[in-house]
Structures are given as C-alpha cells and as structure tokens.
C-alpha cells in the first residue's frame, strides 16, 4: 500500500458520490436519522483532516470503514452515558422530532395563526393580551375599558374559534 497526498476537492467528490449510501449505512447502525446525518458529516471532516491517505486502491472502502468506526464510537458513548441502556434494535426510534411530525406541527401553527388573524379585532386583542402578555382579566378590562365579564366572554369566544379552526369544524 502506498501513501499518497489527497486533495480536499478529491475528498469532497468522494464524499458527495457516496453520501447517500453512507447515510443509509449509518442509519442502519445507529437507528436515528439525525445522528446518521451528523456522523456522515463527521466522516467527511475526518477525511478532510488527513494530509495523506493509504488504501488509495479502495477509497470508498476507507470512507465506509471510517463511518463504521464513528458509528461504533457513537453507540458505545450512548450505552456508557447511562441515560437509557436500551439495545439498538429495529423498534428503537429516534427521540428527536421527525420531519413528518415537524410538518404536521408547522401546519397546525399555520392554522392557529390564521384562526387568530380571522378573529374580530377586540376578540383577537383580548386573546393576545391574555395568552401572550399573560395579563389578568382585571388588567385586560382596565386596559381596554371594558368589564371583566366581557373579557371572559370574548376570551371564550376566541378560544372556541381557534379550537374549531384547528380541528377543522365550523361553529
């Protein structure tokens, strides 16, 4: 085996060519999409840190071996941390929010913002003063020059409107 200097653009090309396969490989090992992405980036950074490489006859193999070693270190670290010493298996899911969950949450936030925007002005103002500014009914009533009972009624109206808009029913 010879030792050759390898340029950063060669490493970048090697990584880009095999990035998807590396992420899939790491995902099978660590069972967490975010960790697999992070480890693939760490693999790339490790190779960038090398001034020269042996194994020039099989650079993709070297790339995968580096990724595998990083995944082993990752798994060992999480097993040693003692937070949860579960075995990695097909049933173990990533504790981070998954893209589909994030998309659902984003849609719900958008519907909530639309619901708030569609409220009558005073009703919207009361809702925001209570939920965002955390003012009491008495403080809101004093600020707007209305009764506490009106504040309560408008707040209930606003919350019901938002609830109906979020679950998609007409009221």
TrEMBL record:
Against Pfam families, the record matches this protein to: Sigma70_r2 (PF04542), Sigma70_r4_2 (PF08281)
Keyword Magnesium among UniProt keywords: no
Question: What Gene3D superfamilies does the database record attribute to this sequence?
Answer: 1.10.1740.10, Winged helix-like DNA-binding domain superfamily/Winged helix DNA-binding domain (1.10.10.10)
Domain RNA polymerase sigma factor 70 region 4 type, chain residue ranges per copy:
110-162
- InterPro entries in the cross-refs: RNA_pol_sigma-70-like, RNA_pol_sigma-70_dom, RNA_pol_sigma70_r2, RNA_pol_sigma70_r4_t2, RNA_pol_sigma_r2, RNA_pol_sigma_r3/r4-like, WH-like_DNA-bd_sf
Return the similarity comment.
Belongs to the sigma-70 factor family. ECF subfamily.
Q: What is this protein called?
A: Sigma-70 family RNA polymerase sigma factor
According to its UniProt entry, this protein's organism is: Methylomonas defluvii
